[in-house]
Write a structure and sequence with these properties.
The complex is a heterodimer of chains A (about 525) and B (about 170).
Chain A: H1 3-26, H2 36-57, H3 65-72, H4 79-107, H5 116-139, H6 143-157, H7 178-202, H8 215-231, E1 248-249, H9 253-256, H10 258-264, H11 267-283, E2 297-298, H12 308-312, E3 318-322, E4 330-334, H13 344-348, E5 365-366, H14 372-385, E6 393-398, E7 412-417, H15 426-433, E8 438-443, H16 454-462, E9 479-483, H17 489-507
Parallel strand pairs in A: 6-7, 6-8, 8-9
Antiparallel strand pairs in A: 2-5, 3-4
Helix pairs in contact in A: 2-4, 3-4, 4-5, 4-8, 5-6, 5-7, 10-11
Chain B: H1 9-29, E1 35-36, E2 42-51, E3 60-61, H2 64-69, E4 78-79, E5 87-93, E6 96-103, E7 114-123, E8 125-134, E9 144-152, E10 157-163, E11 168-171
Parallel strand pairs in B: 2-10
Antiparallel strand pairs in B: 2-7, 3-4, 5-6, 5-8, 8-9, 10-11
The chains are: A alpha/beta (about 525), B alpha+beta (about 170).
């Protein structure tokens, strides 16, 4: 294994432990670590709303800006001061969750293949976020804003781009004109608009992108920032005075770390460090990666154009086109660049039913590396291999979730899929008809699906709220569901044991013969 | 059903702790520790100018041969060079050479302004300054010289600029 990959996997194991700590407190579906991108979106809206208020009250002149912002802290009920503090803390929070989002996706290796586009379009957003955050300090023209503006100008002047040094704009009181200040405001409004535009690119290849966290998490995060804003309101420092250098001041290290770094090294060092970091991030997707699995393939003869694969694909890789031979019907078409090879479309296809006649099961859309016909053959042979065990159990799991292979035993046949949502619900019924007394379906915990929507679609299909549904006639006591991510095999084992006990108890008073799922 | 949800008191305490940690991370590092940019007994001198040097040579009359090569509407009798002189600047602080710099004119034809920005941290107190500036390659010696004794308070910023309209080298 490549040393870098080994380091990444080791760090990922540590991060997963942290995620489990958060799972314990929040539940997997509300775990903030699983909603970092959505939290970033929410904080951006908080910034926009509080920013609109600040813009309304801001005097956009060099002489009046400080006074207009400082007054907010003296308003009755301190509502303005609270919104100002919320604006600052939301900015800090936005940077924290954005960096954590970058770290998490990097550790999970989500930067190559079909995810390359999202990775590459996400990196510039971080630069925009920092540029905007730094510029925001200048609008409150206090000593911190003065220091940041001058330090930024000195840093930018290292590049041979400007005819006249930008720093000359801050040489004296007269040089900071209202016009220059209007430019600050323009940049602080313009860059966020660019950021939103960039975010649209960032999530463009993600179907049903989550742009708002679950309500409980959203309320908890917003309330935390509000409490912080009330408990530790942000205050202005002394007004800017370009004839006096700021010496020591309260400092926002999360947003302005670049200035002390430049002071303690040099502008050149920081430029090279930034360029190196950006180069490394941009290069990651182009480093040698394990060969991707073959993408989904459509069989025109077995595709009836029902659009379920189109609806369920988490990465919008399936589009519908006119069927070449069936008149008004449609045909699914897979974009190989977007396909994640997750198999979720196979589980959605009504032609994937194992009850279809024919020696070989051929479906409308299938994974060449693990065709659905092969799963049916494996299921049949797996049940046969368990012999005359009284309560045979078929376990279906996910290659990316809890490792179900460990559960194989004398009464258990295990089938690990690319994603549990690759499993058509009719396979549950088929397994019961084929000799299984019970079926255990193991999928990742909510919010932790490798392919985003696999866990959700699995749950909805098996609970009968999404097509293709598991038929209601399937005895619910013979089906068990486990939601467990990688490393949480113990949870699946417990569910299996519970199912086994249930089956044994049901079989004890009558006979060992399983009740047919339906007539 | 799909959520590994915890709803016991321990989970609520855990949530409160983790939200608190988030608030603590943001609340603390958005204002602490304070940053000291300049030691308390220091001042700053910023030497900066943006100035176009004199042309590198005098204008001359075009020769008849040169004029003949030009279209009739472009036959100006005088030819003046576009290129500007680089600007040499020297700054002595308390008799010690603190800066020696030649700022080249900007632009592909070297016909733009020469610029300089240089920040120096000095001890607060009284200092003897000598600034010399040369903006014409045709002249000998420095075209502008300014000597001054200044007393700088802690954290004071002294800006040394060049403004021909105000007599050349300025201190502010």
């Amino acid at each position: 294994m490549h040393p870098l990959r080994a380091i990444r996997l080791q760090a990922l194991a540590g991060f997963r432990r942290l995620e489990r700590v958060f799972d314990f407190a929040f539940g997997s579906g509300q775990n903030p670590l699983r909603h970092l991108g959505a939290l970033g979106f929410m904080l951006l809206w908080l910034l926009a709303l509080s920013g609109i208020y600040l813009y309304v009250v801001l005097d956009t002149s060099a002489a009046g800006a400080y006074r207009s912002i400082d007054q907010l802290s003296h308003e009755p009920w301190r509502l303005g001061g609270m919104l100002r503090s919320l604006h600052r803390y939301a900015a800090d929070g936005f940077i924290v969750v954005t960096l954590a989002h970058l770290l998490r996706e990097g550790l999970y290796g989500r930067y190559s293949g079909f995810r390359r586009f999202s990775w590459l379009t996400g990196i510039p957003l971080l630069l925009m976020a920092y540029a905007n955050a730094v510029g925001g300090f200048w609008l409150n023209w206090d000593q911190l804003g003065q220091f940041s503006a001058v330090a930024t100008a000195e840093w930018l002047d290292w590049l041979p781009l400007f005819g006249s040094p930008l720093t000359r704009n801050f040489l004296g009181v007269d040089t900071v004109s209202d016009r220059l200040f209007s430019l600050f405001v323009f940049v602080h409004i313009g860059v966020p608009l660019l950021l939103v535009f960039g975010l649209w690119f960032h999530i463009q290849r993600v179907a049903r992108a989550t742009v708002f966290p679950p309500r409980r998490l959203a309320i908890g995060t917003a309330a935390t920032l509000l409490v912080l804003a009330l408990a530790a309101p942000v205050a202005s420092q002394a007004p800017a005075n370009l004839s006096v250098a700021p010496t020591e001041f309260a400092y926002d290290w999360l947003l302005l770390f670049v200035h002390p770094l430049t002071d303690s090294t040099s502008p050149a060092f920081v430029w090279f460090a930034l360029a190196g970091a950006l180069l490394a991030l941009f290069a990651l997707p182009f480093l040698p990666q394990p060969a991707p699995a073959p993408v989904a393939v459509v069989d025109a003869d077995n595709c009836n154009g029902c659009r379920r694969c189109f609806d369920d694909c988490p990465y919008a890789a399936v589009t519908m086109v006119p069927h070449p031979t069936r008149g008004v019907r449609q045909l699914a078409q897979v974009d190989a660049d977007l396909c994640a090879s997750c198999g979720i479309c196979v589980g959605a296809c009504p032609s994937s039913s194992p009850f279809r006649s024919g020696a070989e099961l051929v479906t409308g859309i299938d994974m060449p590396s693990a065709p659905i016909g092969m799963l049916r053959r494996k299921l049949v042979s797996g049940m046969v291999s368990l012999g005359n065990q009284p309560n045979k159990i078929a376990v279906f799991g996910c290659d990316h979730g809890a490792d179900v292979r460990q559960l194989a035993g004398p009464d258990v046949a295990v089938f690990s899929l690319m994603c549990t949502a690759q499993l058509p619900p009719s396979f549950v019924e088929y397994a019961l008809r084929d000799g299984a007394a019970g079926v255990l379906v193991s999928a990742c915990a909510e919010g932790s699906c490798e392919y985003r929507l696999g866990q959700r679609w699995t749950a909805e299909r098996l609970l009968g709220t999404r097509e293709p549904r598991l038929r209601a006639s399937v005895p619910s006591e013979r089906l068990a569901l486990a939601w467990a991510g990688a490393g949480d095999e113990a949870a699946v084992r417990r569910t299996l044991q519970s199912l086994r006990q249930r089956l044994n108890a049901a079989a004890a008073p009558t006979s060992a013969k399983p009740t047919p799922a339906h007539g | 059903m799909a959520d590994i949800s915890k709803s016991g008191p321990l989970a609520w305490i855990g949530q409160a702790l983790l939200y608190g940690l988030f608030a603590l991370l943001i609340g603390v590092f958005s204002s602490w520790p304070p940053y000291r940019h300049l030691p308390p007994d220091q001042a700053l001198i910023k030497l900066s100018f943006s100035h176009q040097g004199k042309p590198v040579s005098d204008c001359r009359n075009a020769t008849p041969e040169e004029l003949a090569k030009l279209p009739p509407n472009m036959r100006a009798p005088r030819v003046c060079p576009r290129e500007r002189s680089p600007i040499a600047v020297e700054f002595d602080l308390d008799g010690i050479a603190a800066l020696r710099h030649v700022a080249m004119p900007s632009g592909l034809s070297r016909d733009g302004a020469s610029t300089l920005y240089h920040r120096m941290q000095v001890a607060a107190g009284t200092h003897r300054l000598v600034v010399r500036l040369k903006d014409d390659v045709r002249s000998s010696g420095f075209d502008f010289v300014r000597e001054a004794t200044v007393t700088l308070k802690p954290a004071q910023i002294l800006v040394i600029d060049f403004d021909p309209g105000k007599g050349g080298i300025t201190l502010q």
